[in-house]
Amino acid sequence: MSKTAPAVFLSFLFLFVSLGVGSAHAGEDVSNSLLHNDAGYIEFALYRTGPIIPYKEISKFISSNTAKLVLSDKFESSTDQMVIDFKTITNVHEEYAPPSGNFLRYFGRGLSSDQAEELGKSSHVIVFYVASSNKYVLEANKEATLLLHSMADKFGGFIWDEDTREIFTKEAWRDKRLSMWTDQWPNVANHITIHVYQPNDLYARAITLGMAKFGLPDIAINNFAWSVNRGMGNLINLLAQQMVEGYSISRKGLLADISSFKNEEAKRFMEGQLFENAQKDVVIKVLPSKPEEGDPNNSIIELAFDHYPGKSLQEKQERFLGAMFGWQETMSMVEHNNQILAASNRARSKLPQLKSDFNKGLEPGGHINVKAPFETLDGGNEYMWVDVIEWKSDQITGLLKNEPYNIPSLRGGQSVTVTEDIVFDYIRYFGDGSSEGNETGELIMKYQSQTRSYNQYQN
Known about the structure:
Elements: H1 31-34, E1 39-48, H2 55-65, E2 69-71, E3 82-89, H3 92-95, H4 102-107, E4 108-109, H5 113-120, E5 124-133, H6 137-155, E6 158-161, E7 166-168, H7 170-178, E8 193-197, E9 204-209, E10 218-224, H8 229-244, E11 254-255, H9 264-271, E12 283-288, E13 300-304, H10 313-325, H11 338-348, H12 351-360, E14 367-375, E15 381-392, E16 395-400, E17 415-419, E18 425-429, E19 435-437, H13 439-447
Parallel strand pairs: 2-3, 4-7, 10-13
Antiparallel strand pairs: 1-5, 1-6, 3-5, 6-7, 8-9, 9-10, 11-12, 12-13, 14-15, 14-18, 15-16, 16-17, 18-19
Helix pairs in contact: 6-7, 11-13
């Protein structure tokens, strides 16, 4: 989601290198051609009410509060300078409109309702442009981040990050952008955002915003199931952290190595996402990617999964996530007693409404899983979850969310079709993170007699 105001004209000579592995020599490390732009570019802004601050006063404040950023309206990436320029826009609602409405709900950081109203009454906005060569990109980013907090503290106002499309109070800016940046290396997850949306009726797409501030391309993952959204977000943050910390990528890909993270906060968080059976030496493959409407004005790379087994892209993605983060899942051995069967009948009675809601279109982030039996080799049934991607007539098609225990012909992530008459239960996930259903699951846990561990992506 972006602001409705048109982009501000920049005075810098902003030149992005084009992506393309083919520009590198055979056998050469391709990090420069694939992972790096020629410089880092940042656009921050400060929305204010009240009297306009004179140009000379802002210039003096910049000079007094940063010795590293040089005030200039010219920049070339071949130099070692870190430069900053600014302009004040007075017809703010026509040229650089502040965010409002639902935008603030999702991308407003720390604003109360009164502050949101104050933001909407902004009389002017000061827009800052920062540029540096890749050699100094982290230093320039940190200096600009400190400077914007000092500006907001001195003159008041709300801080806008044009790259991540977020608006902050000075307190939220301090807490998210400054307080954790205690050394050279930031926790990159605090400085970028990941937008996830559904460009078609089946699968989701994720794209980062904000990597241009580090002189790096933004990261996309295409065509994955909503149910693995968390795993994909962790994967993106892992790759972004390694890229910012200077890890290079070869033609084989980038070796994921959480143990060598230089930012301790990012390292602790990512290690907390791993299960004991997570594999080491997992290679992340990336390719140049074409931008889609709404993407950041930056080079983009796309994560590829073709080096993992599977009949479909989604099955390959499941295999990759299982290898990268490990997996854990519970299998329960239990008789279907009267209480469990009654709960199943209550769930089945809600299928018509679920079907209607699904085909009308669920809210962003919403998805439905159904549980159904699959025949095992010994003639029994194994009950597994299916992430619904299509529901026509009485046919439900989706991605298998479990790794089968006794059905060699099926794998987690595989596309399967079940009929409504065999559905045993459901879980509906809402966009706000809440869910309903799985009443039988609670009863099965109560009466289970045996457990076994499997995939973390089971719901």
